[in-house]
Specification:
2 copies of one chain form a homodimer. Chain A is built from 6 helices and 10 strands; from the N terminus they run αββββαβββαβααββα. The first copy, chain A, has helices at 3-25, 73-85, 149-163, 180-191, 197-207, 232-241; strands spanning 27-40, 43-50, 60-61, 63-66, 91-98, 109-117, 132-136, 178-179, 210-216, 226-230. The structure holds a DNA duplex.
DNA sequence: AAATAATGTGTGTAATTTACACATTCTAAA
DNA sequence: TTTAGAATGTGTAAATTACACACATTATTT
């Protein structure tokens, strides 16, 4: 046995020891992973970072981090979001926990997936790390993500598709003022299907939380559409009436 | 530097490396808590155990346990269910993770809540621990649960109310063969509202996964109703057609 | 000035949900 | 044995909601 081999063996044993110790205390690492959606150029996008972990070197992964001992689960997700995008006060909601034993190559890590919707045009948004990039959701079909992030992403995307039909989340992806066409493009991108323009319009107006700003689109090569904004207060009132099943 | 020191340094370095990826200082306990529903005497019930923890001595709490290091999250929930009720092959689904820093008095414990639906009349069911009892869901309004289990229960109950209207889960709470009246009583108990008998019947028949067993109720003090069973195969086929958003 | 392209609006039809009543079958009591 | 009671089993009309669809308007560009 060469010294090198011996050392490797010791290292191996130490790692084993660490695992045993962790076992004895029943403690494990817990992380949050954020599926951060954005909407740009009529395309639904998701923010990914290139993994620096050996096993998944170069593969794209969700933005995540370990949860700190004195940090709420939600707070950890907010922290990741803030650190990575500079944004705060944005839509963020827990989707599901993923806890397979072997989901992480470096050891036992249970992760909690969050879904976030941000407005790409918001001036707050600044992505400092140049390993982080926007990817169109469509293009993910052809990409292999690191860890089990493909499954996590799929779960969150389907969750969003369902959720967006029951609650008005979409607005979080748009600028404060938006045209109905933009809103419809967004919904078509999320649901991945064409919608009837007239029925779409009717539906949203009947929900009665779109407010006409009096302004119109500018610099569009056609008749400009009216700009609306989402009235959160009205919505909150309605929500109570709806007896919303909401967790 | 002696070989031993060198080795130690390498071990140290390896651990550091590992820590950077999975910081051992960031580890914490993870538990599962099961909200186990049953249906008996036309009442929706939930299984609770009297806490033996000092702070919550005597208070009722959900059935839960720490997740073991070599155990999947789902497996841990199944284990709790099996150990406490003797039942296997039952409906169990993750609902949400709860991770407030101070939610557990004994230290940091992140818990993942599961919802389970079991048939109280199943012969498998055996509750050995005499600290475990069924409680009607209605009566929980007047009880103070230990930990944050009130919140967890509320979340799971609302989740169930919503879920049961989108997917046929209810059958898991009933015996294999059941009358439509029993089914309706169940739904009325879960949703906590009266339903129209004719429309209820129409709706379920139109979904086309109720099978007439040819048998009838026995020992009822009135005209006996037909007994039906739920056809899982038919349902599975339908589910695909529905393009079910299901995680 | 005309062509183009998108906005803005309304109506009829189909599908679904809701409300509602009466005859039937069994049990239990007279 | 008869009768009263109570729950099962079934159909239809009204109301609401979802869907399909067409044309006039307003701005831009040629």
């Amino acid at each position: 046995m060469t010294p090198k081999m011996k050392m490797a063996a010791t290292v191996e044993k130490t790692l084993k020891g660490l695992q045993t110790e962790v076992q004895s205390t029943n403690k494990m690492a817990i992380s949050v992973d954020c599926v951060i959606f954005g909407f740009d150029e009529n395309t639904l996008k998701v923010l990914l970072i290139r993994s620096d972990l050996k096993k998944y070197k170069g593969k794209w992964t969700l933005l995540g981090d370990l949860v700190k001992p004195d940090e709420d689960l939600d707070a950890a997700a907010y922290r990741v979001l803030k650190q990575r995008t500079g944004m705060k006060d944005v839509y963020l909601e827990q989707v599901k926990a993923f806890g397979e034993v072997d989901r992480h190559p470096a050891g036992r890590v249970v992760t909690v997936a969050y879904c976030s919707l941000i407005n790409i045009q918001n001036h707050q948004l600044q992505i400092l790390d140049n390993e982080i990039h926007w990817h169109s959701v469509d293009s993910l079909k052809d990409k292999e993500l690191g860890f089990d992030h493909e499954r996590i992403f799929d779960t969150c995307y389907r969750w969003l598709q369902k959720r967006v039909q029951e609650h008005p989340l979409g607005f979080n992806l748009l600028p404060k003022k938006f045209s109905l066409r933009e809103l419809q493009n967004l919904y078509e991108a999320i649901l991945s299907k064409k919608l009837d323009r007239r029925n779409f319009r009717k539906k949203f107006f009947s929900m009665d939380f779109l407010v006409d700003t009096g302004e119109e689109e500018r610099d569009v090569p056609h008749r400009p559409g009216k700009l609306y904004k989402f009235d959160f207060e009205k919505y909150e009132k309605k929500k109570k009436v709806w007896a919303g099943i909401d967790f």
